[in-house]
Amino acid sequence: MIDREGDMKTFHGWVLALLAILIATDARAQPAAAVMRDADPKIVGGWPSKPGSRPFQVALVHAGKPNNFDAQFCGGSVIGRNAVLTAAHCVQGKTAADIEILSGTDHLKIGGKRTGVVKIAVPERYDKATQDGDIAVITTKDPLLGRALALATEADELEHAPPGAAATVTGWGNTAPAGQNFPEMLLEVIVPIVSLDTCHQRYAGLKPPATVTPLMICAGYKRGGKDSCQGDSGGPLFVSTGKSFFQVGVVSWGIGCAAPENYGVYARVSRFRDWIYAQVGERCTKEEIDTGSCLQ
Ligand code: ARG
User: Which residues pair with 78 in a beta bridge?
Assistant: First the structure.
């Protein structure tokens, strides 16, 4: 049971039953730790991204489904000419032939280009049970449209993403946590970074407890209301320095979406930066990323 307030129990029982059906019927990736939340308004507090303002956002789509909207199942970010960063749980059980990458659009029904996948890399320490190390690098057949997002170093993170700092998360994930309502337009929401301590204590105290590790970074409000959700997985959590953006997290899991104190949990990019760039054949320099020349 994820809820301890007595009068909510039967409702949660119902939600869990519904969830079982959703997991069985919904192709969108959903780790065991993620549970759909009870009633909450729209995308968990977000709004459409300004068109063209998130050129690093891509969608992971099922190769067999020609309609992008139907095919989208996770998010990702461009990190090199032919490289996408996403979540390990998004590619779990899939082969390169199962997935295509949609880049160059923020609308699932307009524009963009699909390319095939040649390689999927997941770190050895990825732990399915806890979602520790929920990171994957996808190498694409053709160059991607858009622009690469820089990955935060531990120093970048200390400086620009300490607890309390405003981070943005983008995605085409569910906007109706009590049911299913997937947007056509890319949405985003601003959430503050939460200390590992606060996040760990919250999740360790749940029944059953969930594990928050130092390879994860949390974001969200104590009162809830704004969060990423199912279908956003693999997408970027990033901070702005005024001049440029750094990716600090990869959407990974949460208990429900936007529930009070159930912060969104993200794979901590800075801890995987070296491994990630080692998978990317061609690395972009900071200057190339800042000037947008990396993909030209
Ligand atoms: N695991 C979800 C997915 O596959 C993302 C969950 C994020 N949840 C949250 N409350 N922030 O799309």
Answer: 84
